[in-house]
Amino acid sequence: MTIVSSIKQAHDSVFATLENITGDWFLGLAARLVFSSVLLVFFVNSAMTKVGSGFPDMFIPSVGAYAQIVPHVAEAAGYDPSQIAVFPWKLIVLAGTYAEFALPIMLLIGLFTRFTALSLIGFIVVMSVVDVTLHNLDPKSVGFVFDRAQDAIIADQRLLWVFPLVYLVLKGAGPVSVDGVLLSRRG
């Protein structure tokens, strides 16, 4: 046996063992934990700035929600939500506010994971478009893929945010999730 074939055999043995140990449970759990450890608190804190405090105000989007999500509409209405049309603006603000609370939590526990991850990708895309077009981010903050800087809010950070979500859309949460428990009970 040559040195090259020995190295190849050792390589194959090590990585086959690693694949067997991690099975189908590890990557889905890891993708959910990575995304959640970086962004769960960010999204929940952001959502908290969009609602009032106490009951029932904690379920009602505040003026801040309109100012953050549709700033041009809020400004045109004099920052008075009662002057904002239900369709489409109030529906957009309601959906965005509730999604910002619910989707990251659903992803963490692995509930409807593929749909949740796809929804979060859409949410991040919309959030990025709003940041660029309505909040007028400067070109340095927007960045560009394959440029020499790695600190752009949109092109760099949000691309990394989306990667674990793409994995979850394609492969699902795996057995260590609410989805996995529901599937095992059904089967």
Structure in words:
- The protein is mainly alpha-helical and 187 residues long.
- It has one domain.
- 71% of the residues lie in helices and 0% in strands.
- The protein is built from nine helices and no strands.
- The chain has helices at 3-22, 26-48, 63-69, 71-76, 86-109, 113-133, 139-142, 153-171, 178-186.
- Helix 2 packs across helix 5 (86-109), helix 2 crosses helix 8 and helix 5 (86-109) crosses helix 6 (113-133).
- The termini are far apart.
Instruction: Tell me the overall shape.
Output: flat
Main β-sheet description: none
Number of helices: 9
Question: What structural category characterises the helix and strand content?
Answer: mainly alpha
Topology record:
Elements: H1 3-22, H2 26-48, H3 63-69, H4 71-76, H5 86-109, H6 113-133, H7 139-142, H8 153-171, H9 178-186
Helix pairs in contact: 2-5, 2-8, 5-6, 6-8
